[in-house]
Write a sequence for this structure.
């Protein structure tokens, strides 16, 4: 089985890719069983596994990271060690090299993309015959180790790479592809302020634990905006979609997930004609998105003029 893949896999190793993600609507509420809409950022991370060296090493040249993979260590190395043990690869010699193409800790799904790309490279190099569903399952385990209580939306988009509606129902992930009537033009504004999803998810959980009714009603509101956005998206009603994004940001702000930089970027986007703008992902820094079907360049340039990096993404 998988003979063609083995032949196509030279000793030197090949790169395997995974997608990052943009949450269009529904972040945080999705952790509490409400739906979210997520869009892929193609080719966000690539990884390559070579059978060489002594023991297992991970190298991420762009981050200046080079370290042995050991069980019982914090962070990436410990998470990888656990996965390699589960795959019965922990006694192999290998170098795992990772090439991230999106900034880390900016709410763009880098950690999930990293896990999926590494799993794909391992699958190919060791001929494990894993399908997307297995890769997604293992990437979810990595997310749990990194973030505590993830909804699973990030690893699902990283694996399948299509626009998705995602929801956990009775603890099970239910997701389906979304059909866009036309390509969506988004500008991502990057605050440059790193934010760990684990922290903002814990912050929201604290508040929810103290006042469950109060916060459940906010999650319900975000949930119904997301349902409406799903329709707007599939019917190509971009004005509506922008309005729903703006409202959603209001609730995320109520959850205390916004920052002065995010607010500035959102203001710039709206002042330059974006149909909608909101924070995306974990918040507390990270990134925001602006829906700009007609004028992405003008919006991106205005953000850059204020000192921010941007990413223009066309989905669909
Ligand atoms: C992070 O990309 C999205 C959050 O909703 C967390 C999660 O769903 O696991 C903030």
């Amino acid at each position: 089985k998988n003979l063609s893949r083995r032949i196509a896999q030279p000793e030197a190793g090949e790169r395997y890719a995974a997608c990052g993600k943009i949450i269009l609507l529904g972040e945080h509420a999705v952790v509490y069983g409400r739906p979210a809409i997520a869009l892929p950022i193609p080719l966000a991370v690539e990884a390559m596994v070579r059978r060489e060296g002594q023991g297992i090493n991970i190298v991420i040249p762009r981050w200046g990271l080079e370290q042995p993979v050991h069980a019982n260590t914090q962070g990436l190395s410990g998470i990888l060690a656990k996965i390699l043990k589960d795959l019965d690869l922990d006694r192999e010699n290998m170098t795992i090299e990772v090439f991230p193409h999106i900034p880390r800790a900016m709410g763009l799904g880098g950690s999930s993309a990293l896990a999926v790309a590494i799993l794909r490279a391992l699958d190919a190099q060791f001929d494990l015959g894993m399908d997307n569903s297995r890769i997604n399952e293992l990437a979810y385990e990595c997310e749990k180790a990194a973030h505590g209580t993830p909804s699973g939306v990030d690893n699902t988009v990283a694996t399948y790479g299509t626009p998705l509606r995602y929801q956990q129902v009775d603890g099970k992930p239910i997701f389906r592809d979304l059909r866009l009537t036309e390509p969506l033009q988004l500008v991502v504004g990057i605050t440059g302020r790193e934010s760990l999803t684990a922290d903002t998810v814990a912050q929201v959980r604290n508040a929810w634990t103290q006042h469950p009714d109060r916060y459940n009603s906010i999650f319900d509101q975000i949930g119904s905006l997301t349902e409406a956005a799903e329709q707007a998206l599939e019917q190509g009603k971009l004005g509506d979609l922008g309005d729903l994004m703006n409202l959603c940001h209001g609730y995320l702000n109520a959850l205390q997930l916004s920052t002065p930089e995010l607010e500035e970027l959102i203001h710039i986007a709206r002042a330059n004609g974006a149909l909608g703008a909101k924070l995306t992902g974990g918040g507390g820094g990270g990134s925001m998105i602006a829906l700009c079907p007609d004028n992405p360049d003008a919006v991106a340039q205005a953000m850059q003029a204020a000192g921010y990096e941007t990413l223009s993404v066309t989905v669909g």
